[in-house]
Amino acid sequence: MTDTRTSAVSVSGLTVGVGAHGPTLVDDLSFEIAAGTVMGIVGESGSGKSVTSLAIAGLLPPSLSVRAGEVRVDGRVTASAGRRRRRGNDRVDIGVIFQDPRAALNPLMPIGAQLRRSLRAAGMNRARAESRSLELLEDVGIADPVRVGQSYPHEISGGMCQRVVIAMVVGAEPSLIIADEPTTGLDLTIQAQILALLHETVTRLGCAVLLITHDLAVAATMCDTMLVLYGGVPVEVGTSAKILTAAEHPYTIRLVAAVNGEVSRGALAIDDGGDLR
Amino acid sequence: MTASTSPLLEVRGLSVEFRRRRHVVHAVADVSLSVDRGTTLALVGESGSGKSTTAKVIAGLVAPTSGSISIGGREIPSGFKDAALRRSVQLIFQHPGSSLDPTWTIERILAEAIPGRVDSAARHRMADTLADVGLDPSLLSRTSARSLSGGQAQRIAIARTLLADPALIVLDEPTASLDGSVRLRILRLLAQLQHDRDLTYVLITHDLRSAQSVSDHVAVMLRGRLVETGPTSAVLSQPLHPYTQALLDAAPSLDPRERDATMGRWRSQLQSGAVDRTDPSVPLRQVAPGHFAAVE
Q1: In what order do the strands lie in the sheet with A24-34?
Q2: Which of A18, A129, B17, B222 could connect to A119 by a Cys-Cys bridge, CB 3.0–4.6 Å?
Q3: Residue B211: which domain range?
């Protein structure tokens, strides 16, 4: 982005490793995300994309630690070397959407009660939380918010659960939303709806989004900028258009070519036979 | 595409019902398909569409409630026991690792597909087949399947399938659990093997667009029923059923110039919820040669 919007998120020299002396999982990562834009971290399994998202969210498991660098959200440090867990106010600044929405919801509590509780934690009074929770469920395309609010997570579909999680995150009005493979495992038509919803949310809230995905085509549609990770090392950062059409790093070029090859007709043609598609 | 004689696989009026306590689930309802030898049919649908149940019936793992299946012109009796007939249809799963016993050597895993004793001829065949799927024959003595990558594990599953000398292979999302670059290599391998051995594939997938490069025909399923079927190029370029169109609209594009158009389609799906309201029970009718759709 070439405009003058301030960066909502700034990551500088982020390095994450196992314990103090174990292997380095993410090495010297720096990038910025402007408010109102979506940045994608793309990479294959083991590239360190999820570790990056956990570090930024301040949710690293005890075995991993930030060795160097820092993360600032709206100017405030949310992760840095030596800092263990996220603290009180971080939660209103950063919302996280994980791959498995059911794991993020309490199976023993009705959806509406969970939503009200998260709104109360963000400082709303009881009456306001009550009415706002219904509004939020409507905003994420749930036609019958009263009935869904009374349901338990197991009574609604995975796509519906993910909508509820998005409603919860949006309700806290964070400066940064981290979405870690938010639609992996969902049907394609549901994925389209969830991602459209997420995109709408960014526009409405003007927050920054960090989208972690293994699906380059999803990133191409959602992201303004992209970071390509390989083996914990950032190999390329740039606008989505540049990464997809004019990548410079050989790994990025190969990754884009592989995904392009899969969807283009004739990519699987056999050299010697010639008669096969 | 090869000129066809008689189809290798024919499915007629297939229905599968599961009983759940007091109600009956119609997993597959009146599905008819035919696949010519040496070609690939992509069976496309989302969760609950009945695509995997259809695949399991074809592979003989689930008994149909009604309907018939024939392979190479031979009618398959319900719950067939005939070993040779069973071997002629093989199945490849999404998670290759889970179909490989981690405590067995690769040789023992592959030997399962070969009837009779494992003699030196059988060992040669196994080594040759490993080479055919792009693996080093020295892997045979490796003891643990756990140290294999996802791509290697899928190649071993493919090698085991080939050793059974099948006419038809049912591929159930064979690359869904693999990374992008590995996926393309496995798809290339499957295309090469099909070409070399005149194999017939039924490919189960949730992604209609990915069917483009790998299939001759597609069949789209929704809630147990076929809603559209025909040559892949015709269905993808001229989708007639609203659900087929919705599947194509939902697929993200890698082209940055398509970005706004794709997001626009996603937003309109979000607003209309069109997929939820599609009625799949309209009967199929022929709209162009070989192209059928469940439209009025």
Answers
A1: A24-34, A7-18, A64-73, A76-80
A2: A129
A3: 7-293
